[in-house]
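Notebook entry, structure prediction.
Reason for the run: the old model in the group folder had no record of what sequence produced it. Starting over properly, with the input documented here first.
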Amino acid sequence: VGHAAGLSAARRWAEASRGEGARVRPVLPALSAALAPELYVIGGFGQDGWLSAVERFEPVTGSWVSLPPMPSRRADCAAAAAGGRIYVVGGTCGGPPLAVAERFSPATSLWKALPPMRGARAGCAAAAVRGRLYVVGGQGCTGQPLPLLECFEEGPGAWRELPPMPSGRHGCCAAASGGRLYVAGGRRGGRHLALCERFDPVAAEEGSEAWAAVQPMPVRRAECAAAASGGCLYVLGGIAGGQFLARVDRYDPASDSWQSVPSMPSRRKDCVAGCLAGRLYVVGGFAGSWQHLSACERYDPSTGAWEVLPPMPTGRWDCTAAVAWR
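New structure, fully documented this time:
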């Protein structure tokens, strides 16, 4: 049934059915391993301006599929997948930052409007930790860099503020690894940052110190992308000192250290990244001269090799992305 209906449907069945849930939940890890996750690229800025377009990359076939667009056009938003659904928050459509939040179901291809975030913001970052959505940082309505951290409570359908980041910033990137949220890079006061900070949700619930600074990145950068693979955090591309970067750095939480790995084939900022079956995918971005990139590249950490894949149908930058199962 799980293979036919998809992982998202199986998860919802396990949550909704008291009788069948106990039998479905134990097989979810095996089902997750058997079914391939896919990369969803959402919104951004392209040749036609602010976008609502949604496109999915299917690694099994190596092809792109267009999906129903977001209800709202926007760029500089953030996304993450939690509980089998994709959440897209914040951003801008040429005006002030937005607090809008919308949810997409990969199983049904339907969108649903959610309560807005407490703080309107663009250039924020999002990640899911232990099945819960977290949104951090961003730029507020007066242009100020925000330390704001919010999580979305699925049960009551409400946003909750958590201890803020020690350092307000926007244009940062985030990813989850080992049950913790990592936030790297960004801008504050016109300066690019090498800062990397870690948030522990369990410590926050216990009332302990939840934020900690970890080893900073080797280079200052903003508008970069992040993804986690093999227990490590990867930060890719971005901009530093007016230069677009192809650089990729890997952070190992076990040793609290960074290591440079082979660079991307394409220099770019405002790209998106995701991890599918242990391999990193980087899509879209901006490389100057109003180039709305459609490039899609894949990195295999086991071999250190990059591979160029079929391009995304819609060239864009300042988009967002999430990895999810149908």
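Summary: The radius of gyration is 18 Å.
The old model has been moved to the deprecated folder.
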